Amino acid sequence: MTPFGTRLRAAMDARGPLCVGIDPHAALLSSWGLNDDIAGLETFSRTVVEALADSVAVFKPQAAFFERFGSKGIAVLERTVADARAAGTLVVMDAKRGDIGSTMAAYAQTFLEPSSPLFSDALTVSPYLGYGSLEPAVDLARRSGAGLFVLALTSNPEGAEVQRAVREDGRTIGATMLGHLARENAGASPMGSFGAVVGATLGDLSSFDLDINGPLLAPGIGAQGATAADLPAVFGPAVRNVVPNVSRGVLKHGPDAAALRASATRFADEIRAAVSA
To answer: Is 96 assigned a catalytic role?
Structure first.
């Protein structure tokens, strides 16, 4: 398969860089007039995919909101992933997996092995058992043409106590993770497949080298307070590789498909204008 970074660059150039989260939490299902059950989960997910799959570059389903329903929820997640990918939208599975050895390999096989029913174009992973613990996922992603998004500088306030901690060599943990990713992406063109999660709400990040030759998944646009206009100041020269994620800002307009499309189009246009300014 063509490497994820190449496919993502093409999708961003063709459709704009917007990533829409698929986050069917109980309050959102209720606001759509749906029950917090399998039927509501399925209606919600199908509506989002049918409304947006032909126009957005990336979907990011949050696995936890499906897993909470057990095997039936996983079955809905499988169909959601398959339908989105069949419609031409890339899928980043937001599962934030992180472990060691054979356990990490099993997580990788779940989401990055092409024969798996949950195979996704990319997976979010946590490196805080040491970046080397991600090796099984890195290796399988390379073989399968998939990608990873590694938690580096996240938007939640609690993340700073780990990610901004300073190592003995004077570098922060977050900067160390970015350095690992830059090495993974060295020589890739037009963009590497190993990205970082970097919050759009973090303000000036000029002290970090975000030029990792890979994508930067940026949560925080919309409900968390960041706007498209903030992106150049936060990401600087790396802004062209930013994949801004919007979840509630788009999803709150459901279940009306036209309203979902209008909201996604507005965010996409604002992001495109900010990134290309």
So the answer is: yes
